[in-house]
């Protein structure tokens, strides 16, 4: 089946993949649908073994699916002739890549740039990825995190329209992660690039994506904007404050948690759909009697909570 859906830069339908045969076979993908609109960043979020790399590499054309149909940039990937000319428009940062250990960063990027008509500026990529002081280092002498940033540079060097990133920041410290995401954001602002990435970092998926696809056991369990997932699966907020031990808290529901502190105060924690109602009441109470309120805060639930809600377990388990 040929898909030419102009709204989607990626359109995958009913993708299936089994590894091996018989009793020891593994169903890695059990009929996955996934679409990415032009200009979107979509994250595939899931625990180890969920099928993320299998899915992204099938879409990239690096692995073969057993069945299903996939189009990228409007071309059916089964049509090898048609997709050949798309190579220049696609950038790939694989999870495991073998880089030439004897070349320096500058030599590798300069060499790769010659494969493209309009490559990006090498100095710009090196600087924005925080690799200035390593540009003349051989790749084999770089740390895992530095090599990972080189892989991101290689994905961007051809100035692609569509980028695939398989766990692009898994080995990076917070500062390097920020550098990668600021660079990708900058690229998005100036060009209409689309990104499909895999991650098992909730925070990254929540902050960086227009949409999150939660994959587990080879199935898509949820697919929505991060805020949409949180609103759908965890509508409640957490209200927390510290108050004196003898504060009159009769207006709070029975399931409110209270933890005593040694300084004669208690931390109160309440899950509620209407934190504002309780905040107004607390303000009112604090005016009447001796009623301390300190460290009052309302926290929205996170994608971590969504994952637990959907799968019944934490990501790391
Ligand atoms: N080449 C392969 N041969 C056999 N089984 C494989 C192969 N590649 C992956 N699998 C199996 O398929 C399932 C999905 O693996 P995949 O690597 O796609 O998951 P993942 O979500 O990317 O995991 P991780 O977060 O650990 O990278 C796993 O059970 C894995 O063991």
Automatic annotation (TrEMBL):
UniProt entry tagged with the keyword 4Fe-4S: no
Gene3D superfamilies in the cross-refs: P-loop containing nucleotide triphosphate hydrolases
Signal peptide coordinates: none
One matching Pfam family: ABC_tran
UniProt keyword list: ATP-binding, Nodulation, Nucleotide-binding, Transport
Record-linked PROSITE patterns: ABC_TRANSPORTER_1 (PS00211), ABC_TRANSPORTER_2 (PS50893)
Residue ranges of domain ABC transporter in the record: 10-242
InterPro entries: AAA+_ATPase, ABC_transporter-like_ATP-bd, ABC_transporter-like_CS, ABC_transporter_ATP-binding, P-loop_NTPase
GO function term, MF aspect, one: ATP binding
UniProt similarity note: Belongs to the ABC transporter superfamily.
Name the record gives this protein: ABC transporter domain-containing protein
Species of the source: Pseudoalteromonas rubra
Taxonomic path: Bacteria, Pseudomonadati, Pseudomonadota, Gammaproteobacteria, Alteromonadales
């Amino acid at each position: 089946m040929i898909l030419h859906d102009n709204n989607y830069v990626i359109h995958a339908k009913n993708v299936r993949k089994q590894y091996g045969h018989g009793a020891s076979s593994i169903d890695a993908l059990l009929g996955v649908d996934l679409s990415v609109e032009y200009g979107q960043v979509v994250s595939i979020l899931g625990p180890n073994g969920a099928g993320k790399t299998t899915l992204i590499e099938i879409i990239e054309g690096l692995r073969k699916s057993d069945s299903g149909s996939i189009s990228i940039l409007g071309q059916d990937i089964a049509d090898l002739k048609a997709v050949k000319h798309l190579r220049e428009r696609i950038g790939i940062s694989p999870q495991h890549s073998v880089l030439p250990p004897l070349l320096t960063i500058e030599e590798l990027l300069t060499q790769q740039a010659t494969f493209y008509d309009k490559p990006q500026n090498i100095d710009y990529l090196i600087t924005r990825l925080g690799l200035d002081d390593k540009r003349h280092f051989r790749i084999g002498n770089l740390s895992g995190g530095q090599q990972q940033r080189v892989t991101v540079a290689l994905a961007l060097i051809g100035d692609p329209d569509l980028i695939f990133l398989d766990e692009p920041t898994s080995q990076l410290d917070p500062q390097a992660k920020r550098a990668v995401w600021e660079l990708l954001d900058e690229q998005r602002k100036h060009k209409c690039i689309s990104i499909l990435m895999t991650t098992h970092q909730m925070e990254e998926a929540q902050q960086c994506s227009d949409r999150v696809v939660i994959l587990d056991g080879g199935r898509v369990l949820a697919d929505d904007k991060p805020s949409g997932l949180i609103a759908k699966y965890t509508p409640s907020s957490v209200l927390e404050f510290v108050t004196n031990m003898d504060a009159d808290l009769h207006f709070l529901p029975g399931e409110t948690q209270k933890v005593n502190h040694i300084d004669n105060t208690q931390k109160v924690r309440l899950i509620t759909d209407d934190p504002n109602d309780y905040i107004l009441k607390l303000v009112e109470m604090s005016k009447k009697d001796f009623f301390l309120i300190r460290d009052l805060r309302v926290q929205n639930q996170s994608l971590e909570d969504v994952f637990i809600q959907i799968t019944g377990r934490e990501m790391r388990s």
